[in-house]
Amino acid sequence: MSRIRIGLVGVGKIARDQHLPVIAANPDYELVAVASRHGRVDGVAHFYTLEGLLEGAGDLDAISLCTPPQVRHALARQALEAGKHVMLEKPPGATLSEVYDLIDLAREKGVALLATWHSRYAPAVEPAKAWLEGKKLRRVHVSWKEDVRHWHPGQEWIWEPGGLGVFDPGINALSIVTHILPHALIVHAATLEVPGNRQAPIAATLSMHDHRGLPVTAEFDWRQTGPQTWDIVVETDQGTLTLSRGGAVMSIDGVAQLEQKEQEYANLYALFAKLVAERKVDADLAPLRIVADAYLTGRWLRVEDFVE
Ligand code: NAP
Description:
Elements: E1 4-9, H1 13-25, E2 29-35, E3 45-47, H2 50-56, E4 62-65, H3 72-81, E5 85-88, H4 96-109, E6 113-115, H5 125-132, E7 137-145, H6 148-151, H7 167-180, E8 186-195, E9 203-209, E10 215-221, E11 229-236, E12 239-244, E13 249-252, E14 255-256, H8 264-278, E15 281-282, H9 286-297, E16 299-303
Parallel strand pairs: 1-2, 1-4, 2-3, 4-5, 5-6, 6-15, 7-10, 8-16
Antiparallel strand pairs: 7-11, 8-9, 9-10, 11-12, 12-13, 13-14
NADP nicotinamide-adenine-dinucleotide phosphate is lined by residues 10-15, 36-39, 66-69, 71, 89-90, 118, 155, 157, 168.
């Protein structure tokens, strides 16, 4: 197979931390150009807009979108209309309808579409899913608490409508939970704590269950200083599984299992190459659906203003 000629849009934190090094290390890809108003990549053609990139970058196969969710749908539509395969950062859109529209368009055009959920590729996630298989699950609790000032400095978009607030990291936990649990989850109660001067929650709690009554609760909080918490605890009839550090480590009854190398984005680009070869769509909406349902059912509490 010839190399996938790819363009990347939105040279921000995640593009620099993960996408650019992972594309550079994967022989299946050739990074042809980037589009970003402020970002540049040494030795790679630059355009200010996706439109400019599609016109000026020569024959491209694929586009990877690393922008905030609010502008993703319009960009993805433009790329799909141009017949390009598209990779979407998480969350795949600001609304469910946007993503359904993209799925339909990708199928109509016969190109690949990947809605990425990077946390599903954290090293301990597949081992956890395998360990849970066949066991009787009693209770699941998610605790995802981090310091927004440390992880999202200056990211104004994250506090705007469509930016998801604390669900921006929280949806990573939901992507893991919806992958390792056997049945779909239904939200029956939620609280959203929204600072008086912001449009998105700084903290949230969710109560969910599956159709068999398995209780699943989640606490997301962006006000945590000191040690950070990204844990999922699953109580079963044969012991308690804990996924900690965002899915990096699995423990059974407090005993850590073998740690493996982190390869989240390497795995995502390997999957995208496969989808491109097969012209397939991979877009699971379960994590975004839970966030949407939390917004629909949630009780809103106005809390102290957030000043960075
Ligand atoms: P970021 O640092 O703010 O970068 C986003 C980039 O998108 C900006 O550099 C900006 O580049 C471009 N952009 C285009 N339109 C924009 C707009 N209207 N407002 C703001 N920026 C705009 O954000 P990020 O942390 O990389 O996150 C981007 C996406 O990746 C989010 O959906 C996030 O959930 C996801 N993600 C982030 C992380 C992480 O660790 N940060 C991890 C996994 C996934 P120009 O201004 O140059 O156009």
